[in-house]
C-alpha cells in the first residue's frame, strides 16, 4: 500500500563526500562550457586574500615617502615627522614644521632669522 507521506532526500555536506561532490560539479560545469562559473569564485577568493597584503605594502610605501628624518635646527636632536606637519621638538620644545624633508622653525611673522658666527 503506498504511503501518502512525501519522500525526503538528504545530502550530507561533510567529509570527503562534500569535496568530491564539489569537484564533480566543477568538472561537469567545465565540460558544459561553464567553467567561468567555477573560476569566478576562485578568482574572487584569491583577490580577497591578496587585497590586505597589497594594502599593507601600499601603506608602508606611502609612509616611507612621507616620513622625514632630520635634526632640530635649535638643539640638533634627531627625530621623525610626516611631511607637511607642524610639531614640537621632543627635546627642546621648539615649534617646527616639515617641508622638503627638512625641519624648519616656526617663526612669527616679521621675525628675521640670523645665524650666529663665532670667531
Describe the structure concisely.
This protein is α+β, with helices and mostly antiparallel strands and 119 residues long. The chain has helices at residues 15-31, 35-66; strands at residues 67-71, 78-82, 86-88, 95-99, 102-105. The strands form 2 sheets. The protein has a 3-stranded antiparallel sheet with strand order 3-4-5, with no helix packed on it.
Description of the molecule:
Helices cover 41% and strands 18% of the residues. With 119 residues, it is α+β, with helices and mostly antiparallel strands. The strands form two sheets. The protein has a three-stranded antiparallel sheet with strand order 3-4-5, with no helix packed on it. The protein has a two-stranded antiparallel ribbon with strand order 1-2. The model has no long low-confidence stretch (mean pLDDT 86). It starts with 14 loop residues before the first helix and ends in a 14-residue tail after the last strand.
